[in-house]
């Protein structure tokens, strides 16, 4: 084992040129490179078929150029008054926040559940009572799925609109309620990787049709809309998925099952090795086993986390404090927000650490990370580490 080789945090796995070739050949043949081309439309159908196997409702799929734009356009399509308060958990990626602000709404930063590390309908109810929020952007943080049925119940009871940011949860997050739109990312680091791209999945064709139109500048393409085709009917953006990205997504989908199994196996072995070595010092996000994990995140005491970071740095093992600083700390610089008390998010974040994870992680890599974690949890300082 080379004890000094760098272990990167993430190594993307995208289809190679051989896997891409049939789709690029279609591109050459079609000479259609964007604007809802045949590869894009076939991709939407393939994804809709996958979701249909997992739900009782027919679902619509609309691609976007990224999950961030997908979130922004779903929020815009809700057509809520400017400045409407939208609840979002403190522990998430900044894109959840920027999508709300760019859609013209005001973020309400809320706390998370201590076990699942997710925003729940109960927390959102309390935040809505306190602030008068009219929408919720719940997040499948770290790929851990949200319960769409429970959110649908919340939406029906409260009249508060809900959408789910499931950027990193393709394959784990299903859409089991037709009235809850869910947005996925196809960024290079995700399990269904197109390089860049997003998917909006919902049972509400109005939401999907609006997102599609907003992704094409807001131009009306529907001859039945009672409005001239080619005229602008909303202020949209250019958020279309190019045919090149659709080609990569098709090839990635062809390999998804194999890749997901590999990711699951590495995740399981890695976690077992850490639990066997220093398990009682580590806390994991509660929830279901992920279909295709893309990151490896756990919680320890703040002191142990600091020690682990220092040890990993010295040993060329990359780490990341995922989703930190918390959203309100990011927002402080960029836009007015409303902040609810977030003691749980702060406590979780104080010891949260992302360790290297990818389909290329070897047994030796895992052994090196486990050794470093054991040293950190055994309270050894850098000066006292065995070499
Ligand atoms: C929770 C969350 N939301 C949104 C995004 C943004 O996705 P994209 O890069 O496709 O815009 C990410 C990216 O990792 C994310 O983790």
UniProtKB/TrEMBL annotation:
What is any Pfam family matched here? DegT_DnrJ_EryC1
Entry keyword Lipoprotein: no
Could you list this entry's UniProt keywords, alphabetically sorted: Aminotransferase, Pyridoxal phosphate, Transferase
Offer an example of a GO molecular function term for this protein.
Answer: transaminase activity
UniProt keyword Transferase present: yes
Q: SUPFAM superfamilies this protein is in?
A: PLP-dependent transferases
Q: Which InterPro entries does the entry mention?
A: DegT/StrS_aminotransferase, PyrdxlP-dep_Trfase, PyrdxlP-dep_Trfase_major
Family label: Belongs to the DegT/DnrJ/EryC1 family.
Q: Under what name is this protein listed? A: DegT/DnrJ/EryC1/StrS family aminotransferase
Q: Which organism is it from?
A: Methylobacillus methanolivorans
């Amino acid at each position: 084992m080379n004890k000094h080789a760098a272990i990167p945090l993430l190594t993307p796995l995208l289809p190679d040129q051989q896997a891409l070739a049939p789709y690029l050949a279609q591109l050459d043949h079609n000479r259609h490179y964007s604007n809802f081309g045949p590869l894009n439309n076939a991709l939407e159908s393939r994804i809709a078929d996958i979701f249909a196997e997992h739900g009782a409702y027919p679902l619509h799929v609309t691609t976007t150029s990224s999950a961030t734009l997908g979130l922004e356009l779903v929020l815009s399509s809700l057509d809520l008054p400017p400045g409407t308060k939208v609840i979002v958990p403190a522990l998430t990626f900044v894109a959840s926040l920027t999508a709300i602000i760019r859609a013209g709404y005001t973020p309400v930063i809320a706390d998370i559940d201590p076990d699942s590390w997710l925003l729940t309908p109960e927390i959102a109810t309390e935040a809505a009572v306190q602030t008068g929020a009219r929408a919720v952007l719940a997040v499948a943080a770290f790929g851990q799925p949200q319960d769409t049925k429970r959110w649908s119940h919340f939406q029906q009871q409260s009249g508060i609109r809900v959408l789910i940011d499931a950027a990193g949860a393709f394959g784990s997050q299903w859409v089991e309620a037709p009235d809850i739109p869910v947005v996925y990312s196809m960024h290079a680091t995700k399990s269904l990787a197109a390089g860049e791209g997003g998917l909006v999945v919902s049972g509400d064709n109005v939401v999907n049709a609006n997102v599609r139109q907003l992704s094409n500048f807001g131009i009306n393409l529907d001859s039945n809309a009672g409005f001239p085709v080619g005229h602008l009917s909303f202020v949209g953006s250019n958020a279309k998925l190019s045919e090149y990205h659709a080609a990569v997504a098709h090839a990635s989908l062809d390999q998804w099952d194999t890749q997901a199994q590999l990711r699951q196996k590495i995740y399981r072995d890695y976690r077992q090795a850490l639990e066997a070595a220093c398990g009682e010092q580590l806390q994991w996000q509660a929830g279901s086993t992920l279909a295709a994990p893309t990151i490896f995140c756990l919680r320890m005491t703040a002191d142990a986390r600091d020690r682990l970071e220092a040890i990993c740095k010295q040993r060329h093992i990359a780490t990341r404090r995922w989703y930190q600083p918390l959203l309100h700390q990011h927002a402080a610089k960029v836009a007015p927000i409303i902040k609810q008390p977030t003691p749980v998010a702060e406590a979780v974040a104080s010891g949260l650490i992302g360790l290297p994870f990818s389909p290329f992680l070897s047994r030796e890599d895992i052994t090196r990370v486990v050794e470093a974690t054991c040293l950190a949890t055994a309270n050894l300082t850098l000066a006292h580490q065995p070499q």
